[in-house]
Amino acid sequence: MRFDGLVLNEQRHLKWRALDPLEHVLMILCGICITGFSVTVLGDVITRAIGRPWLLAQETMMTFFIYGIFTGVAAATRRNDHLYLAVLAESMSGNRRLFFEIFNRSVVLCVAFSMIYFGFLNFLDGFKSLRMPSMTPIATLYIAIPICGALVALFTIEQMVNGWLHGFPDRKGAPHHESAGSEVL
Amino acid sequence: MTSNGALIILMGFLFLFLGYMGVPVAFALIASVLVVTAFTPVSEASMIAQLFNGMDVEALLAVPFFLLVGDLMTSANVTVRMITLSQTMVGHFRGGLAQVVTLFSMFFAGISGSSAADVAVLSRTLAPEMDREGYDRAFTAALIASAATMANLIPPSIMAVVYGATGNVSIGGLFLGGVVPGVLVGIGLMIYSHFFGPVGIRRKRATFGHFTTAAQEAAIPLMIPIIIMGGILTGQFTPTEAGVIAVAYIVFVAIPLLNHRHLRNLPRDMAHTGLLYSIPLITIGGASAFGWMLAYLRGPAMVSDWISTAAGGDPFMIMLLLTLLFIIVGDFIDAVPAIIIFMPLIIELTKNADINPVHMGVVIITTLAFGLITPPYGLCLLMASKFVGVKFSKAMLASLPIYIVFFAAIAFTIYFPDVVLWLPKHLLPQSVGCFPNPNGTGYICP
After folding, report:
1. CB of B200 within 8 A of CB of B97?
2. Which residue among A43, A44, A81, B184 has the highest number of C-beta atoms inside a 10 angstrom radius?
3. Which residues of B touch A183 (CB under 8 A)?
4. Nearest 5°: CA angle at B240, between B105 and B153?
């Protein structure tokens, strides 16, 4: 089993080595989620085909699916792997560049804090609704949003602090449109 | 209270401004929605919950599988066999390698729903060979990018899954409807390459023996489209289930038989694909919140009124105006958020003009696929120009004549609904609104 190379080494100066294990764990969780999700869907198909449907399949696959998405979003933030329209800030330099890089990350940080706060409110509210047939509160899924928000905030602060101290990568670095985020369509 | 129109403009401006400054699309969408929510009685918590609701759609479960299929096939290097088969079929034509690019893309489109995977494969394998044969790099990049768009037309298509899931349109119907524009684009590119592309090196026609050997070697990967579409058409599987069966086939049959050493890399592939599928889906979540707020502010109703008034109720005119709108939108916004944001508008116009939802879906998807090669946000062209090693501006100029192929395909899709809907009507009649004849013989189609 090979899990090496899961921590992206690009834009190293924007990262703290102390958070590398966290990125590694998040990537493994991404793999576990998609594998668990695939196995569950396959199990659902097989059990229905043999006439003994697995009642919890729908819930289980949705759990892996939702957690996979929010885990992936957190990992993508550290790897700068999101989907971008364009990165005008990269064509700038000096203080203007620093301002816009910090501004962009401040927007992400605000969204992350909103995910933490409002996501937590939704989590508390989620104990009133139950998922069928297991009768598990939907809060067990809603909690993924504030957790993801916290991780996104952590990685964004990491980039802001390191970018402020060491500068942001120049245009020779990998442009965003070539990152994994562009591989989706 | 600020007027709805001003809030819609503010939300759209914020999204584009933040997006073009370099904020990730998903976060730009969420941020613009949260700002506008502050001016409405809607709670911010409900908008964050909308992120979740946008993803909690069963049909979207198919997206990871169609990404995984393309990713596994590419990383296990199984696709080379399909390239060899394409070479034996069209390699002897004028501009042989250009023809191979197009034919391979048609094969690959039947396996993967991702254009980007197609660009990656072709740029790594055929682009260097085309370079050696003297093909202009700008032409190579333009052709690879244009051919890769077929992955969104020929089933399985991720755009069709997203469109069907959010618009409550039959995904099977959209898959089948996409075949005609997909094949039209393919044929158009082959004709263009034959008459207007570089000559390349003329090869001898492959013997029947070579062709049968190549076909045998490519048979295992080429079973995947049969599994996916066969399962859906026979009613055995939903698109999600067909996707997982295809993944299981690759993991348990294709890779062990064709490249068994790659099995040890599977955990790493899964981790990367796990990351990859989260990116469009969080964008879908953000776009869903954006679309919800747009609908709350009655944006779709306003635009729908303008378009209906301008088109005078003529369905073809409505589709033309929508195509124009989506050509502009597709130039600036990614296809997935564009579909979700504008879905309420599409639904309203489809209903008002009595257009078949599958037909409308195919027209919109074809238009958005074209957006993958148009500047400034032509994702496939951006990737192809980078991988091939040519300036984006040069690749864009080389792709301009190819636009004619897409305009022709879009026009054909709009004006010949019977041809576009022929396959869905015959193979999946209920997907296009046909219902069983009470006499028990066949279907009655409106």
Report:
1. yes
2. A81
3. 67, 71, 114, 116-117, 120, 276
4. 30
- The 10s digit of each residue's pLDDT in A60-74 is 999 999 999 999 999
Q: How far is CA B192 from CA B90, B95, B99, B132, in A?
A: 14, 10, 10, 21
B116: contact with A, CB 8 A cutoff: yes
Interface test with B, best of A85, A90, A116 (most B CBs within 10 A): A85
Question: Does the CB of A82 have a partner CB in chain B at under 8 Å?
Answer: yes
Encode pLDDT of A6-51 as tens digits.
Answer: 888 888 888 999 999 999 999 999 999 999 999 999 999 899 889 8
Q: Establish if B283 touches chain A: CB-CB under 8 angstroms.
A: yes
Whether B175 and B160 have beta carbons less than 8 Å apart is answered as: yes
CA dist B66 and A94 (Å) reads 42
Name every chain A residue with its beta carbon within 8 A of the beta carbon of B231.
Answer: none
In this prediction, residue A173 carries a pLDDT of 45
Q: Mind telling me how many Å the CA of B92 is from chain A's nearest CA?
A: 31
Phi and psi (nearest 5°) for A3? Answer: -115, 10
DSSP state of A134: T
Rounded to two decimals, the pTM is 0.83
What confidence score (pLDDT) does residue B33 get? 95
Closest CA to B275 of A40, A183, A170, A113: A183
List the structure tokens of B308. 């209906």
Instruction: Tell me the per-residue pLDDT of A78-104, one tens digit each, with 9 for 90 and over.
Output: 998 887 876 677 777 788 888 989 999
Query: Prior bond to B376 cis, omega within 30?
Result: yes
User: Given an 8 Å threshold on Cβ–Cβ distance, is A89 in contact with B26?
Assistant: no
- Please name the residues in contact with B193: beta carbons below 8 A apart, sequence gap of 6 or more: B95, B98, B99, B102, B143
For residue B247, give every residue at least 6 positions away whose Cβ sits within 8 Å of its Cβ, in sequence order, or none.
A38, B65, B68, B69, B72
Structural contact between residues B368 and B330, judged by C-beta atoms closer than 8 angstroms: yes
Q: Choose among B271, B60, B84: nearest CA to B168.
A: B60
Distance from chain centroid for Cα B265:
28
| C-alpha closest to that of B145 among B102, B110, B93 | B102
User: Which one-letter amino acid corresponds to residue B76?
Assistant: A
Q: What DSSP designation does A172 have?
A: T
Minimum-distance CB partner of B56 among A38, A62, A88: A62
Two tokens, residue B238: 């939903």
Locate B418 and state its tokens. Answer: 């019977």
Q: A85 contacts in B (CB within 8 Å)?
A: 16, 19-20, 25, 28, 332-334, 377
Q: Determine the distance in angstroms separating the CA of A81 from the nearest CA of chain B, rounded to an integer.
A: 8
